[in-house]
Amino acid sequence: MIESALAALGTVLAPHALLLMATGVGIGLVVGILPGLGGTVGMSLVLPFIYGMDPNVALAMLIGMIAVIHTSDTFPSVLLGVPGSSGSQATILDGYPLARQGQAQRALSAAFFASMLGGVVGAAALFALLPLARPLVLALGSPELFMLAVLGLSMVGVLSGAGPLRGILAGMLGLLLGTVGAAPAAPHYRFTGDLIYLFDGIPLAVVALGLFALPEILDLLRAGESIAREATMVGGWRDGLRDVIRHRWLALRCSVLGIFVGFVPGLGGSVVDWLSYGQAVQVAKDRDGFGKGDIRGVIAPESSNNAKEGGALIPTLLFGIPGSGTTAVLLGGMILLGLEPGPTMLTTHLDSTLTIVWSLALANVMGTVACLVMTRPIAKISVVPAHWLAPFLLVIMVAGAYQTTRDWGDLVAFLGIGLLGWIMKSLDFPRPPLLIGFVLASSAERYLWISTTRYGWAWLRDPGVIVIALITIALTVAGSRLRGSIAARGMAS
Question: By the 8 A CB rule, do 78 and 108 touch?
């Protein structure tokens, strides 16, 4: 195994392989910076160019692209309050307030170092867990997957701040929006009003852009000021590095969480940042700063985002079951290259598997260095006056929303969700619970239907279901008690 790993490292460090990996990293950086594109779109654009290439070299380029998308998508999330992809939504909650305080460079560098740490940990986990993961993947059935979705929904209370009732209402609204479109188990459509656009449901990118981005732009225009209230740039990349070192256990903990979420097919990368953010809030003793510019709220989701890719590659390589949309496109690329996912990836094609591991680790380092170089000039966007910046941002958001399905319904839905987001912000309703409910609605309903159809209600007695249920209850009770103790301290002071 060690000899094979060293041989794969030699393949990755070959000049032509490094050049193509750098090309993939560059494309991934651009895709991440542009809101609304995401890794699936970027990977799809690259696939036609890998015909006839050496499989290992082509994999280095594809993995280089996958590795850095969730690094560079931090730029729009922190600087503009616009999610660069579905995995950078939680970063907005504290990254954007830090940018408004003139600490954009600190927030960005902390995010990049956390992403690099998560990516390297994810690559190490991929190397270590591949031979051991097969039994665990096969042990997860629809009941366990449903309970994992319930665990994700339990984060609604954690992310609701001092108003858990409002958070629960927002989460219920998200669940309701998530049921729009075709029912997973019945031949009819729900809440579509006979509009063909709604038959497949409301696109996630449209909901995320409307819920978070549009209200911030409207507030910027109303205030007539730049994103950063102060024209001076406070903090630099060294401050971000110190933040990650100081909160290294948080970053490592969230990296492990990201690996697990990526490892479980069907959970999706859209929820991992919220789970890690909620976990960071739960364990924090001083949580009053979250949502107002706490650097831990940047480190937690960013470390889990990049670690997730290592976990998602495990079921992709072993069973041909993609752990995310991006790895689904990668799966197609592997088949184009003549690589069949399965046990042969640990025997006949072990060199290709180890090439993927090394590429994932090296590309994360390359992407972080590139982003750090770009941080200072790009961070100056935060001091550009709103009346110059807002029209440009609106064009980007409209383009990002429209490219989702290329239907005019995207724009109508974007404006409608944007109005809802603005009303929620004005009334001090938390918006993250709505998005969590929306993201998990489809998978929770689907796995619940499969479980009850196949097992009746006997699945409630499964050991895996009971364990996940106990974890969910424990986390919910702990979060409630911590919230109560913080409120009591606030009243006492």
Answer: yes
Enumerate helices (H) and strands (E) in the chain, giving the number of each.
Answer: 23, 2
Please report the pLDDT score of residue 162 as a whole number.
52
Q: Number of structural domains, the chain? A: 1
For the chain, the straight-line distance linking the first and the last C-alpha, in angstroms and rounded, comes to 60
Which is it for strands 189-190 and 181-182: parallel, antiparallel or unpaired?
antiparallel
pLDDT for res 252? 92
* Residue type, position 36, single letter: G
216-237 pLDDT tens trace? 777 777 766 655 554 444 556 6
Please report the sign of the dihedral spanned by the C-alpha atoms of residue 147, residue 155, residue 467, residue 248. Answer: positive
Closest alpha carbon to 235 in 424, 108, 50? 108
What is the C-alpha to C-alpha distance for residues 320 and 335, in angstroms, rounded to an integer? 10
What are residue 182's phi and psi, to 5 degrees? -70, 135
With cut-offs at 50, 70 and 90, classify the pLDDT of residue 60.
Answer: confident
pLDDT per position as a tens digit, 159-201: 555 566 777 788 889 889 888 888 876 778 888 887 888 888 8
What's the predicted TM-score (pTM) here? 0.67
Q: Quick count: other Cβ atoms within 10 Å of Cβ 172?
A: 14
Residue found by looking up tokens 């709103």 in the block: 386
Q: Which residue has the tokens 């030699």?
A: 10
* Angle of helix 432-455 versus helix 142-153 axis, rounded to 10: 160
Q: Is the pLDDT of residue 490 over 50?
A: no
Average pLDDT over residues 96-125: 87
Q: Which domain holds residue 10?
A: 2-492
Query: 189 in helix, strand or coil?
Result: strand
What DSSP line would sit under 244-309, residue for residue?
A: HHHTHHHHHHHHHHHHHHHHSTTT-TTTHHHHHHHHHHHH-S--TTTTSS-THHHHHHHHHHHHHH
Report how far residue 363's alpha carbon sits from residue 117's, in angstroms, rounded to the nearest whole number.
Answer: 12
Give the separation between CA 375 and CA 107, rounded to whole angstroms.
Answer: 10
Summarised one tens digit per residue, pLDDT across range 232-245 is 445 566 788 888 89
Torsion angles phi and psi, residue 132, rounded to 5: -100, -10
Tell me how far apart the alpha carbons of residues 89 and 224 are, in angstroms, rounded to a whole number. 25
Buried b (16+ CB within 10 A) or exposed e, 419-432: ebbbebbeeebbbb
